[in-house]
Write a structure and sequence with these properties.
9 helices, alpha/beta
Length: 278
């Protein structure tokens, strides 16, 4: 699908909107092409977290339609790649997806998005509550055209918290979740892991939650709204081992898993290279 106007040309969306009525419950027979074959996902996400989640769904057979903003999708210019609009990051995250550019602030663009949503089983977004409300693309708006949709909204912080409207990127969540502080316990000062671990962990949480919601819909016919806050996902991830003695709220002791926090837990130099020892 390709754009040419402030929204998109009718021909650009012909294939994606040919079935304007909600799809019937998928057949129980195992489909060819992956366990999610026959599931259509409308991907209204950007950067890493959301695109990774929908990449996982696409790898499992879902038909993923990514809505890009007018201009340039962020991941397309993140780092080096074979073409200015195809960074290595985007070649990874955009695989197994179809793409369309829509101006969601234009009435025709929003109308096309809702026409697409009516044909989809899942909508995923990482837009914050304010922009979603202004665009009139909140859960109630989308269920008006597709009542049984699985609507997943990912954000930095819970919608019922005082930080709900704040933007959040990987470094912010690594710091807020305590992950960066774990480095201080080892090396004496906090540090970020040299990978976008908060985005990627949350992306996997999103994909798992969507699959669980689809399983629930298969059993009951009911869609639902899902919220995945990055801070909750990464805090839970970190506390698996580092909750340690602090997990027991009745009589808490020190957090942190000593073996993981040992300064000796690292590759060690030898005469002919580095060796990992456990």
């Amino acid at each position: 699908m390709s754009p040419s106007s402030p929204a998109a040309t009718p021909s650009a969306t012909l294939d994606a909107t040919r079935d304007a009525t909600p799809a019937a419950t998928p057949a129980r027979a195992a489909p060819a092409g992956g366990p999610l074959a026959g599931i259509r996902v409308l991907d209204l996400t950007s950067v890493i977290m959301g695109p990774l989640a929908t990449q996982l769904l696409g790898d499992q057979g879902a038909d993923v339609i990514t809505v890009e903003r007018q201009g340039t999708a962020t991941s397309r210019v993140m780092g080096h790649g074979p073409h200015p609009q195809f960074s290595g990051v985007s070649l990874n995250l955009l695989r197994n997806k179809r793409n369309v550019v829509l101006d969601l602030q234009h009435p025709a663009g929003r109308d096309l998005l809702l026409r697409l949503a009516a044909t989809c089983d899942v909508l995923v977004t990482n837009l914050r509550p304010g922009p979603l409300a202004r665009l009139r693309l909140a859960y109630a708006d989308v269920t008006a055209v597709r009542p049984d949709i699985v609507y997943c909204r990912a954000a930095g912080f819970p919608s019922d918290s005082d930080r709900a409207a704040e933007p959040a990127y990987d470094d912010i969540i690594q710091a807020a979740s305590g992950l960066a502080d774990a480095s201080r316990l080892v090396h004496g000062e906090p540090a970020f892991l040299p990978t976008l671990v908060a985005d990627k962990v949350t992306g996997m949480f999103i994909a798992q939650a969507i699959c669980a919601a689809l399983f629930h819909r298969e059993r009951t016919g009911e869609g639902q709204e899902i919220e995945v806050p990055m801070i909750d996902a990464v805090s839970a991830f970190t506390l698996v081992e580092h909750g340690a003695g602090a997990i027991d709220a009745r009589n808490p002791t020190a957090a942190g898993y000593p073996r993981i926090l040992s300064a000796a837990r690292r590759p060690h130099p030898t005469k002919d290279g580095w060796v990992a020892i456990l």
